Amino acid sequence: MTGMRGRWWRVLQETHEREEIIERVAALDIGKAEVTCCARVPDQGRPGRRLQEVTAWPTMTRSLLALAVRLAELRVTRVVMEATSDYWKPVFWVLEAHGFDTWLVNARDVKHLPGRPKTDRLDAVWLCKVAERQMIRPSFVPPPPIRRLRDVTRYRIDLVTARTAEKQRAEKLLEDAGIKLSVVASDIFGVSGRAMLAALIAGERDPSVLAQLARTRMRAKISALQEAFTGHFTDHHAFLLAKMLARVDGLDADIAELDERIEEMIAPFAEAVARLDEIPGIGPVAAAVIIAEIGTDMSRFPTAGHLASWARFAPGVKESAGKKKGKSTTGHGNRYLARVLGEAAIGAARTDTFLGERYRRIARRRGPQKAMVAVGRSILVITWHLLSDPATEYADLGSDFYDTRINPQRRIRAHVRQIEALGYKVTLEPAA
Questions:
Q1: Which of 54, 122, 273, 290 has the most CB atoms around its CB within 10 Å?
Q2: Can you spell out the DSSP letters for 342-381?
Q3: What count of other Cβ atoms lies within 10 Å of the Cβ of residue 349?
Q4: How far apart, in whole angstroms, are the C-alpha atoms of residue 56 and residue 331?
């Protein structure tokens, strides 16, 4: 046992963590109509002891201002609250404006112990005790300019989603009427498609006349269009299609206005947008969305790995008894950021670049979904480096990066195994 104890002792290492108590801290349990506040401060009369105050406040703005005044009287330095729906936002903004060190934390990080009673009061007390011992970490809340940009970019994404859904409804309506326009035209809402749909709504039912409305390259498909327009489109379908197209046009106009607004709001970050625009798959709109979601101050993320982990573009680690548990899934992160990174990865896959070859290389072995996540992570890592250091410039490694660095013998063995798997015997001779 002595030998075993000695071995265990030798592996003890000094950590850089220090146990530190936040002297004056408050925690908020936030609901829609009421906020329960627990404040903990030192007891000046009894060293080492703590005083605690638990109060309830309405969520109206005047009450929140009074809460800020009370916390200032207690000389509270840090206020911690859980991310409860969107109810935390007005509370956070008010306390932030009053100069408090305001933390938003993930409710998953402060779950109660099993069997512990649960009330708003107990939740606030528990959160406050956890916060004063610094056993939780804050979530990323961007500064006001980035928050306002984020509101606009997210609303634009939501409108694009709504427009896509409306276009899908229109296509389903045409299928119901036996109009197979989507089989012939790749985009039924292009110039030719919209002209044909407008004629259908106006009462035209002759397939030959409708097919003649095709323009440019679509005119090569006139015979196929005639077949596609042979259906049973009625006035009932025309009424519904007119409503759907009007909604699509309205959404197009709203999205165009949002694009103008985003262009104005992104102007102070024009240099960052230009730097991100150099990454394959990233355009001005995608760059604006990325900046709106992660900001430009990368000091909040010590390394690129921290950023990837926050965005859930890194697999979780679950290991017990030396065995990994479950699948290496990334988990659910920022869906707006995940969407734009996924679209950027698909765009990069179509290019003759390092990221494009990386996507194709992984997709061949592990499928397109894992390739999209891997390339999305690569884009996020590149973004972190570009935003962390203004002197850093993006340089593409080239699509032949892997081929020029893989050991030739390893490549030979891989090709031989592939051929032998097909039932052939391989004999290698060096070329003259």
A1: 290
A2: HHHHHHHHTSSSHHHHHHHHHHHHH-HHHHHHHHHHHHHH
A3: 22
A4: 35
What is d(CA 57, CA 47) in angstroms, rounded to the nearest whole number?
30
User: pLDDT digit of tens for each residue in the chain (432 aa)?
Assistant: 445 454 444 555 665 555 567 788 999 988 888 999 999 988 887 887 888 899 999 989 999 999 999 999 999 989 999 887 888 999 999 999 998 999 998 877 776 666 677 788 888 888 888 888 888 888 888 899 999 999 999 999 999 999 999 999 999 999 999 999 999 998 999 999 999 999 999 999 999 999 999 998 889 999 999 999 999 999 999 999 999 999 999 999 999 999 999 999 999 999 999 999 999 999 999 999 999 999 998 988 989 998 998 888 876 666 665 666 555 566 677 889 999 999 999 999 999 999 999 999 999 888 999 999 999 999 999 999 999 988 888 988 888 887 777 777 888 888 889 898 888 888 888 877
Considering the segment(s) 25-132 as one domain, its CATH architecture is 2-Layer Sandwich (3.30)
Q: How far apart are CA 312 and CA 34, in angstroms?
A: 32
| Residue 188, helix vs strand vs coil | coil
* Residue 316 phi, psi (nearest 5): -75, 155
- Residue spans of alpha helices (H) in 177-214: 181-184, 191-202, 207-211
Distance CA 133, CA 329 (A): 31
Percent helix, percent strand, percent coil in the chain, to nearest 5: 55, 10, 35
Angle, CA 56 vertex, CA 51 and CA 61 arms, to 5°: 120
For residue 381, give the amino acid letter.
V
Residue 24: partners with Cβ closer than 8 Å, 6 or more residues away: 39, 40, 41, 42, 74, 75, 76, 77, 78
Residue from 85, 154, 144, 148 nearest 339 by CA: 154
Spatial separation of the C-alpha atoms in residues 131 and 123, rounded to whole Å: 12
Identity of residue 362: I
Helix (H, G, I), strand (E, B) or coil at 222: helix
- Ramachandran region of residue 134, left (φ > 0), alpha (ψ -120 to 50) or beta? left
Residue type, 166: E
Structural domain spans, the chain:
25-132, 146-265, 269-315+332-388
Q: How far apart are the first and last CA of the chain?
A: 66
